[in-house]
Amino acid sequence: MLQERKLVIRTVAARLTLTNLVLVLLIIGIVGSTIFVLERQKDDGLVVNLSGRQRMLTQRMAHQLLGYSQLRDQGKPAQAERQALLLTLQVFEKTLEALDHGGPAPMDLQLVNLRQTPPASAAVSAQLARVRGLYWAHEKQARVILDGTEAERHQAVAYIIENNSELLSEMNTAVSILQSEGEARVRQLYYIQGGALLLALLVFWLLASYVERTVIEPLKRLSIVADAISRGDVQFPVEVSGAKELARLGASVERLRVAMKNLMPSGETAELAGL
Predict the structure, then answer these.
(1) Nearest to 173 by CA among 77, 54, 273
(2) Contact 29/196 with Cβ under 8 angstroms?
(3) What's the pTM?
(4) Cα angle, residue 173 at apex, residues 170 and 176 outer, rounded to 5°
């Protein structure tokens, strides 16, 4: 009996360990999926921030081009303004490339701090292609303002004034698409967590039912039978299903019941059974 009891303990421990292991794996899965989506959301914040800065840079470029042209018209030195404008163009170009294809993007206007960005989705990439087409036309006019004749410069300034709003509008569209994709990933996180919670509840219910059916119920039946045998009621056979070790323990109790029944006179057995 002692050996059979040890087997039961090990069986119960194994089932409880299995239950805990499955629940731990579910928790790890929930945490892992949440971390994965949150990491994507961290990238979302970065690219939305950079794309929002691109909108600012389109306005900054127009302002710098007009200011530079005005200084040239007045015959004033504009070397500092020229260098600032070239730097703005370079930051815009590098950021646009990083937003589209992924890679290091400048986090400041001095190109000192860089941050790795992920490649854009197909929808964002298509929109950024439209932005790029408009930008290169602007960049061409910017070079005319910087190095062209006075008449060419005035024509280029007129082009910038007329078309800058279109570049800004297309960049706004890119920002909207990026924000929509970020919001979609937030919803994805809710779906993952909700689905994982439902799965965890289902698995917990299945495991609890399994432990109830294979361990707890057989032990309850054995407890009832053992109590009856202790009171001399040895009339009913012991039937225990479930785990193999519990069935073996039930068989041992059944042999004990049969042995006690054979040792007891039939009249005494009937009398004890009526108690």
Answers:
(1) 54
(2) yes
(3) 0.66
(4) 160
Is pLDDT larger for residue 256 or for residue 154? 154
Are 157 and 64 spatial neighbours (Cβ–Cβ below 8 Å)?
no
26-201: in CATH 1.20.120.1730:
yes
Residue 3 has a pLDDT of: 47
Q: Where in the chain are the domains?
A: 26-201
DSSP of 106-150, one letter per residue? ESSTTS--EEEEPPPPHHHHHHHHHHHHHHHHHHHHHHHHHHS-H
Contact 151, 122 (CB under 8 A): no
Provide CB contacts within 8 A for 8, sequence distance 6+.
219, 245, 246, 249
**Mean per-residue pLDDT for 96-108?**
93
To the nearest 5 percent, what fractions of the chain are helix, strand and coil? 85, 5, 15
Tokens matching residue 113:
């701090």
* Cα distances (Å, whole numbers) of residue 70 to 64, 137, 180: 10, 21, 40
3-state secondary structure 194-237: HHHHHHHHHHHHHHHHHHHHHHHHHHHHHHHHHHHHHCCCCCCC
Q: Count Cβ atoms within 10 A of the Cβ of residue 20 and give its class: 0-12 exposed, 13-18 middle, 19 or more buried.
A: exposed
